[in-house]
Amino acid sequence: MRSTPRSRLMHRSTLHPGTALAVLVLLLAACSTDVPQQPSDIIDGSDSFGPIDDPGLRDYGINRAPEPRPIALPPVPRALTATPGRDGIRVSWWDVDNADAYALYIAGGPGETPDDAERIQLETLHFMDNVPPGTRRTYAVAAIIDGQEGALSGEFTVTHVAPERQRQLRLSMRESDLDHLFTRNAYSNTLLPAQLSVLPDMETVEVEGVRFRGAGSRRYPKFGFHIRTENRPHFNFGDDYRRGGNRILTNALWTDPSAMRDAIAYQAYIDLGMPSPRTQYAEFYINDIFEGFYVLFERIDREFLHGQNLNRRRGGMSLLRDDMKGNRRRLDMEDNSATFGLDLDSMFDSDEERISFLQEIWEWRGEMEDHDWVGLLDLVRWAWNTPAGDLFEQGFRERFRADEAITFLAIHSIFMDTDSLNVDLWYYRDEDGDGLWRLIPWDKNLVLGGGWYGDFLGSNSFFRYDRPLLSTLTNMIFEKLLQTRGLYDQFEDEIRRLLDEVFHREWLEHQVNHLLPQILDGMTRLPGPDAYHRQPSQHHDDPEYLMHHVEQLGEFMDLRRAWLIIELERRRGRVYGDVERARRERFGIRDGRRRCLTDQRGHTWACLSPRGGDWTGSASVAAIRDDGVDGVNRRYIVQFTQPFQGELTLFYHNAPGRNWLQREEWAGDQWRLDMVHTSASSVTAPLRTRVNPFANMVVGQISAERGVHTFTLEFGPVPEHRRSTAGDDEPSESAEP
Known about the structure:
Layout: H1 6-13, H2 45-48, E1 81-85, E2 88-92, E3 101-107, E4 118-122, E5 126-129, E6 136-145, E7 148-152, E8 156-159, E9 167-172, H3 175-183, E10 195-199, E11 207-213, E12 224-229, E13 247-251, H4 261-271, E14 279-286, E15 289-297, H5 302-307, E16 317-322, H6 324-327, H7 344-347, H8 351-361, E17 362-364, H9 373-385, H10 390-399, H11 402-414, E18 425-430, E19 437-441, H12 476-483, H13 485-501, H14 505-523, H15 546-571, E20 581-589, E21 595-598, E22 604-610, E23 615-625, E24 631-640, E25 644-651, E26 654-655, E27 658-659, E28 673-678, E29 684-686, E30 689-692, E31 697-704, E32 707-715
Parallel strand pairs: 9-14
Antiparallel strand pairs: 1-2, 2-5, 3-4, 3-6, 6-7, 6-8, 9-10, 11-12, 12-13, 13-15, 14-15, 16-17, 16-18, 18-19, 20-23, 21-22, 22-25, 23-24, 24-32, 25-31, 26-27, 28-29, 28-32, 30-31
């Protein structure tokens, strides 16, 4: 194998530091969404070939698929990852039994290992690549056993980005008070005395007290904090238009190993000119011990309204939030988590009692009497009594800023917020102005593929992109909106518009490029003598895999987009066809770009990315259940009408209730998956494979002749200590309800 001097790599792949953020951060760079495609990614089939040159596909080739033969999978270093940091790019991988050393290949871009790459021999499981910001690197690694170099891993590509220093919140407490904070009931809202210094601002902060914050999040091992101040520090979202807030609210990011979900989701509303909290990051210290990296966000209150140029006059506006979900057990109403699912007229004898009930379960800002409770009662009564249809549409448009509310719901759907539309929003109305209700987003940590799954709560990395358009649960306003033709049509049109004009892959890449430098230091810090004394770690997963979690966000955006477009057509009755089978006839892909095969339920099963030249042809995939596969229980039957060389990405299901693996766990043994290829000429061989278990995807480097091929995703060998056992990935007891 040829060794390439490092100077050559640097010359070819180094960018000016100022352009670092213009470079796509991870394999986001190599992927373009399937529906719709960017014009530069599509080759006009009529110019490239015609029906004579490419016959198309008569079927999925299932009956002609070659039968895989049993083979021994080679020991390969798995879980290869590379993370930018202050000293360069840190590369790491899993160990291999009996390995004496490892051969690490370093190239300037995908497809260049091993032939056009530098080779370094190491005796460790990690390597620090000291390169300047803007440098793009592709890595692959092989184990050396008894002097023989083994099979090479798949490639991992990353662009180095220099971390940016973030603000430090340094909380000081007496040890007795600190012990009390962490040992008392986590749901206590009693403030405990503390002092706070902020670096580098050196701003004076007069602290009234501190407590934990959140509803369900207080069940997690790592806590968010509510710090109440007597003054209004400017760093807490103060600007030229508003004072800083007197409540410092932090989200612990325990359920978000990417650290980006809150920030990206809130920014989506801001980009469309809608009122939404802003976010910022901070390192959090308690008595000089680092206790985690946090996202801070604006509290929705009168000062927030002032910053949004909204009316905040006491008695002239209402700012309210439904907390029926938090009160339903106390009220013995387990089946209802929204006030808009209650018939208050049958529950109470008078409006006075009804309003008293609303005041008991709804949150408000300022003084209770500042808000229009009669107007809220009218909204609840209308939501219950008005059937879906024309009258409901008329009432909705009379009560809400309808266009803005429908855009709000379309964003909620595109980002697949798995928290419900019962509690995760505020209702605002300017009684001095138009008197229409407006929606303000809240609690956006479970978007972009994150979610709640039974006993796993939010402490998991299960991945789905196909949840329903809206999680309305018992909120009759939004449930009836979906059943009202005029409102639903507008909602559907708005989803399509936003997908086409706003929330495409480039928008997400811009957000990631902006946020990544801000999170690198805080999200990769490990427990140690000066870190995590009171809390276990940054989040529920291994911080080593940060870039895999970032990649998951991009995969979600592509997969959700394709699913939504099919789902909207399906709801119109315009989609029919096979499930777990997909084909594309006579299409083209530019070299290094990607096109995907999506079935008629909106599920994407395979993506193709050619290397070494453009590709034109027809392709299909069929996922056929095979419980004999030790890994993902499917055979992927893939056929090409033209020879294909490049990357094949295969996707699988892995979530409670729909799981293609041996047991329900969100990563675990999935790192062991190898893509095995049985060619059209019936030769079975393992492929160089890269796995991202957080996106349910396996990428193999293939060279395939025309015809029908069989691919399987099988567990390869790893050391015993790397294998998962049932329950390894379950949340700790402190995270259970």
